[in-house]
Give the backbone structure.
Amino acid sequence: MYVSSKVWNPARIPSGEADLILGCDMLTSGARDAVSKARAGRTYAVVNKHQRPTGAFTKNPDWQFPGDEMVQVIRGAVGERAIFVDATAIAAALLGDLIAANLFMLGLAYQRGLIPIGEAAINRAIELNGIAVAANKKAFVWGRHAAVDEAKVRAIALPNNAAIQMFPPSLDQEIHDRVRELTSHQNAAYARQYLDLVARVRVTEQRLAKGTRLTSAVSRYYFTLMAYKDEYEVARLFTDGRFKERLAAQFDGELSLRFNLAPPLFAKRDADGHLIKLEYGPWVWHAFRVLTRLKLLRGTLFDPFGSTRERRIERQLIAEYRGDVEKLLEHLNETNLAEAVELASWPEYVRGYGHVKDASLSAIRAKRNSRQKREKAQVLDRRTG
């Protein structure tokens, strides 16, 4: 048997001689060390297909989880003996703990006759481990049930996740939803600024009869900049009811919330001048409610956060983007439409907060300046040609 975990040393198992890949993590299960031990007709693979981002995502925000690729790799190694289940989603819903997925997977493999250890020995090992004994035993049992009827266990764990065919919202619906969000973010006048620019882009693009690519881009990215996550917005998103609904759907009983925050007016800084996050207790919930009511101060002389560097940059980005779009509209034609869509999409690459955001902005502005110089040079060439 080979378990895709750092605890087991795959070098001890000859190539193609593994009886089982018990994969609690899909990326590890599809790694070369694991699949090289597998052989079609001999090896079974019981794999948690939950997609959990790795450290690569922190270095490359465009990184995509290679889920389909991993499924193909594992199936290619074991043939028809591959079993995939989203153990993390099911176990978290049933037991309120993501780690319970590991014992859930063990129970599933055990029930299928793939674990050469008795039930009593497994339960005793859980007891000797001494951590969340009752929950781990329940996870093991739920995994056994899933091996018999996964659909029934999933229905019990996730009763509201019925399979419904979803269609992407129309552009009109997206614009409507974003106007509503910006009204909640600030007020109706603020949302009107957004709607006016998007409407101008749409009218100009319709004259070209070339679809809605530019309108879609401006609708998305102008909203992204205008709905910036300052202190007031973070407070609103926590207290508008949706956050509590998601918690209630995932966990039962009373919850004690703690928050990791770096308030710019109070947080300490590290040696490089970066804000340090600290943990705050449930009392922060009441502070959020107060902040939500004070959003009318946003951007005014009385805004206690408005003079911070990050808040100034966020307001500046909104103005810069609006100016960029207005320039694009002045010269928009069928020839430069594709480039206009690309230019209108630069907020896609504004990532993170604090120094991370500063670094991404520096790269974006350097690219924009280079483009603007090329455009000026092309204009001069046309005039002198």
User: Anything to note?
Assistant: Strands lie at 2-3, 20-23, 44-48, 82-85, 259-261, 278-280. The longest strand covers residues 44-48. The radius of gyration is 27 Å.
